[in-house]
Design a protein that fits this description.
The complex is a heterodimer of chains A (443) and B (435). By secondary structure, chain A is α+β, with helices and mostly antiparallel strands. In chain A, 45% of the residues lie in helices and 18% in strands. In chain A, the strands form 2 sheets. In chain A, strands 1-2-6-3-5-4 form a 6-stranded mixed beta sheet, with helices on both faces. In chain A, strands 7-11-8-10-9 form a 5-stranded mixed beta sheet, sandwiched between helices. In chain A, a hairpin with a 5-residue loop joins strand 1 and strand 2 (32-37). Mean pLDDT of chain A is 94; it is low at 1-19. Chain B has helices at residues 2-18, 64-71, 81-90, 115-127, 133-151, 154-167, 180-185, 188-198, 214-225, 273-284, 291-298, 330-347, 351-367, 372-384, 391-401, 404-414, and strands spanning 23-26, 32-37, 43-51, 75-76, 79-80, 94-99, 103-111, 204-210, 246-251, 256-264, 306-312, 317-326, 421-426. In chain B, helix 2 crosses helix 8, helix 11 (291-298) packs antiparallel against helix 12 (330-347) and helix 13 packs antiparallel against helix 15. The longest helix of chain B has 19 residues, at 133-151. Chain B starts with a helix and ends in a 9-residue tail after the last strand. The chains are: A alpha+beta (443), B alpha+beta (435). Chains A and B meet through helix 1, helix 3, strand 5, helix 5 and helix 11 of A and helix 1, helix 3, helix 5, helix 11 and strand 12 of B.
């Protein structure tokens, strides 16, 4: 029976690939363009991704990448402050933006025939922002309230900041994307403008257009609106401080009265998807699933939630999409009456048992099937596909890497998983964090 | 140029939605379903809803329906929880089961190749749940952990107080999760009772979108759902919003105060609902363009996010909003909210504002239909409130028919700034409870 399912899937993977054509080209000024066709509805998503994120910020100005993202909705030479979003809305669309460690991206979702207007406005704000001191002062309060909402009011988020800062000893991934509060309070008009002038340029950007469009027409439009913007000649090479060899494990207890459920996390430094070398990352996707994916069948779920009642929650996570060294993490929330040290010992015992035992071939087969199926389900969400390309192209991967990835995932073997587990699950390269409401709970 | 663009937009909107052809089908056993056939990707999204939900909890059994629904995926027929999930994973399908105040929600996503096997699992889960004691204990611990988290979350604290004060002993007045005491007291028999009451064909709605035909759906509904009880208990009686105007401060040591505010609202089937919907979009709707967003965030930097919402539940209706602001600035934010609310109630909106919001809403509507699961969700929601299939093509006309007199009359009638109750959790500076 299993063989029948497997062969049926192979035919599926070929089919939807035809349904969503991907076309790519590079404009003369260096701007990459990706067009993803999806003609099911007369809508389009335009995204411009800049290869600049919080991990590229100058020392002392943490949060400026995200702050600038907010400021891009202010005035330009042709648009008043707020007018960008007003026009998008007046055309029945919606728009927003997001910032990560490695990229900053802006997008609109709108009827497909509005693409030229969207390109006109998006290309305009690449070079023509007109920031005022008043804009900066008001918006600084908005991002500080955003930090309040996401982080200061959330003990789990505050704990995560502490753990990340300890995991990365040299890399800027240790600094929160939104910024440290004391540095955010000092972000100036000059900080924002310097960042903008240097990094917002076509040769540092990727245009993604996804939806009911013709790639030839998109190319002509892209040349008209973006192709005329000069490349930034002084764009620096993207060199960031890398991690030194890590030689000792770190342990942190974060105490906050607002914690209701004590829990622990372990984060290990882990390799990311690299261009032409995605095999270890693919094995780590399986490792995360096998250790802490489904609570019903993963190693941690079985050992801590079924065979024993050690935990109310357990999970493992791996985010392969990253420019530099990423993390592989585990978390466990102990059951009532179980201490954090007992839970951590049980977690480490479950990991050791996993490493010693063969992997159930049925489980491997099930994970392969699920990964193949996820490619089919992903076709239903063209914006998700667009994000996949945008993230990849701003994080050091190529179109080919994106398209090879599903097949690389299919080829992962038990030996690959065991090898990467032995390499990554090294506590000298890890932070173990306990999150508790009082010192008494930290036992 | 802008006016030209607007006119075009209306045409686009109409054509986009009319491209979606909703077929209605009724099984031999009388179960109705809406179907959109979309064979381009080989999977189907299926949505099932049942009216009643956690409001059907029996006296003293608060949280029973919620716990029961969380256990539906934890073993049925001959399979225990792990066997059931392992089978489901191997089929690369997802099933989700949620209980909310008024509704039981079942969502399924499966590849065409595995349709029969996945639907057999779903039928088994719904009609032969086991409620094994070890599963009850395991999931109960998860629910209790969530209740404990809610007790320390500023937003949950505000919501809990607001609902209790507004709806008292009615089920809307308490969390569907139940309390520590009620959840600890639940037994296996309570799970079977909750399933018998809440998982029925009494008020059932089905939609499907994807690689499946209406005829196929019609043929499988009786097999899938026919074994569920045909009848069930009635929902509780309607309840009036019982909270008056004022401020309630709940002290909590956290840097940013959160405020939940609101008063009574408007029924979904009221002739003025469209006018109220337009009004809410201008007041505190989803975009960056609302008055609350503009005044509280864009002009003054007092918050990252603020919104207002019409909440037409089945037995009560509210018009509420939510904002978060530092302890030093929340009082100012509340002043601004009152001013915005009062101004819109007193002076209404302008024709330009009305035209602008109509263009946005009519243009944004077709963009919602952007995936199988999204379309299935929209359709089943329409079925639950008694809308016909042609609503998707006519909806923009209904919006267009709303006049400035309509919205401003509804503003004067339904926006009542003096009745606004603000429930604030935090350590707000310069803000006191009014009683």
């Amino acid at each position: 029976m299993r063989r029948i399912i497997a062969s049926a899937f192979l035919s599926f993977t070929a089919l939807p690939a035809l349904a969503q054509e991907v076309t790519t080209y590079t404009l003369d000024n260096g701007m990459d363009v990706v067009v993803i066709e999806d003609h099911r509805a007369p809508a389009v998503v335009q995204m411009v991704w800049y290869k600049i994120g919080s991990a590229d910020e100058p020392v002392g100005a943490s949060g400026v990448a995200h702050f600038l993202e907010h400021l891009l909705f202010k005035a330009t030479d042709t648009l008043e402050s707020g007018e960008f979003s007003e026009i998008v809305a007046a055309n029945g669309g919606s728009d927003n933006a997001f910032t990560s460690y490695d990229y900053t991206a802006y997008f609109q979702r709108i009827a497909a025939d509005r693409l030229p207007l969207m390109m006109e406005m998006e290309s305009n704000r690449m070079n023509n922002l007109r920031l005022t001191q008043a804009d900066v002062d008001t918006e600084r309060n908005v991002v500080l309230e955003e930090r309040n909402q996401r982080t200061e009011n959330n003990p789990g988020a505050l704990a995560r900041e502490q753990f990340n800062a300890a995991l990365y000893q040299n890399h800027r991934y240790g600094v929160p994307i939104i910024g440290w509060k004391h540095e955010m309070e000092d972000l100036s008009l000059q900080d924002a403008t310097d960042f903008y002038d240097l990094y917002y340029a076509p040769n540092n950007a990727v245009l993604i257009v996804a939806g009911d469009v013709d790639p030839v027409e998109v190319k002509a439009l892209a040349e008209q609106y973006y192709g005329t913007i000069p490349a930034e000649e002084n764009l620096p090479e993207r060199l960031r401080p890398q991690e030194p060899p890590q030689r000792a494990e770190r342990r942190i207890t974060y105490v906050d009265e607002r914690v209701s459920q004590p829990y622990l996390t372990r984060s290990y430094l882990a390799p990311e998807r690299d261009s032409g070398a995605q095999k270890e990352a693919a094995a780590l996707v399986y490792l995360a699933d096998l250790l802490g994916g489904s609570p019903f069948s993963s190693a941690l779920g079985q050992a801590l939630q079924f065979d024993t009642q050690t935990a109310v929650y357990s999970s493992a996570g791996y985010r392969g999409s990253s420019l530099d060294d990423t993390t592989f993490s585990l978390s466990v929330a102990p059951a009532d009456g179980v201490s954090l040290s007992q839970a951590e010992a049980a977690m480490d015992a479950a990991i050791a048992a996993f490493l010693d035992a063969p992997i159930d071939p049925a489980l491997m087969e099930s994970l392969r099937t699920q990964l193949r199926a996820s490619e089919i389900y992903a076709k239903d969400n063209v914006q998700g596909i667009a994000r996949r390309y945008g993230a990849a192209l701003t994080q050091g991967l190529t179109i080919k890497d994106v398209q090879d990835w599903p097949q690389i995932l299919q080829q992962v073997t038990e030996a690959d998983i065991k090898a990467v587990a032995a390499k990554v699950l090294n506590r000298d390269q890890s932070v173990t964090g306990w999150v508790v409401s009082s010192q008494e709970e930290a036992r | 140029m802008l006016r030209f663009a607007l006119a075009l937009c209306l045409t686009i909107a109409a054509s986009a939605v009319s491209a979606i052809e909703i077929k209605e089908v009724t099984s031999a056993g009388g179960i109705n379903a809406w179907v959109v056939e979309e064979p381009s990707i080989p999977f189907t999204a299926l949505e099932i809803r049942m009216r009643g939900g956690a409001s059907l909890d029996l006296p003293g059994k608060r949280g029973a329906t919620n716990l029961m629904m969380a256990l539906i995926e934890e073993g049925s027929g001959e399979m225990d929880a792990q066997e059931f999930q392992t089978k489901l994973d191997a089929l690369a399908a997802s099933l989700s089961f949620r209980a909310s105040d008024d509704t039981m929600s079942i969502s399924a996503r499966f590849l065409s190749e595995n349709r029969d096997e996945v639907l057999a699992l779903l039928r088994q889960a719904l009609t032969q749940p086991r409620f094994d004691q070890d599963a009850i204990d395991r999931v109960r611990a998860q629910v209790l952990s969530g209740i404990a988290s809610d007790a320390k979350s500023p937003n949950s604290i505000a919501r809990s107080y607001f609902n209790q004060a507004a709806f008292g002993d009615h089920p809307y007045g308490s969390s569907p999760d139940g309390t520590v005491e009620s959840v600890n007291s639940l037994t296996q028999q309570d799970m079977f009772d909750a399933a018998r009451n809440a998982l029925t064909r009494k008020d059932i709605y089905v939609s499907a979108v994807g690689d499946i035909t209406a005829q196929e759906i019609g043929g499988l509904l009786d097999d899938l759902l026919g074994d569920l009880p045909a009848d069930g208990p009635d929902a509780p009686a309607d309840v009036a919003f019982g909270l008056g105007g004022g401020v309630t401060v709940i002290p909590y040591d956290t840097p940013q105060a959160v405020a939940l505010f609101g008063h009574s609202g408007i029924k979904r089937n009221d002739d003025d609902f469209f006018a109220a919907y337009i009004l809410n979009e201008v007041l505190g709707g989803s975009g960056f363009e609302s008055r609350l967003m503009n005044e509280v965030r864009e002009k003054r930097g007092l918050t990252y996010g603020i919104g207002s919402y019409l909440v037409p539940k089945f037995q009560a209706e509210m018009w509420i909003g939510q904002v978060a602001s530092g302890n030093e600035t929340i009082a100012q934010a509340i002043d601004v909210i009152r001013t915005v609310w009062t101004d819109l109630a007193t002076n209404g909106m302008t024709q330009t504002e009305l035209d602008g919001i109509k263009t946005y809403l009519t243009g944004a509507y077709p963009l919602r239909f952007d995936g199988n699961a999204e379309i299935a969700g929209i359709m089943v929601g329409m079925q639950m409130i008694g809308l016909p299939t042609d609503y998707v093509t006519n909806r923009n006309d209904y919006l267009a028919a709303v006049t400035l007199d309509d919205v401003n009359r509804v503003a004067a009638q339904y926006l009542r700034p003096d009745d606004l109750r603000f429930v604030v959790v935090g350590q707000p500076v310069g803000l006191e409870s009014t009683e």
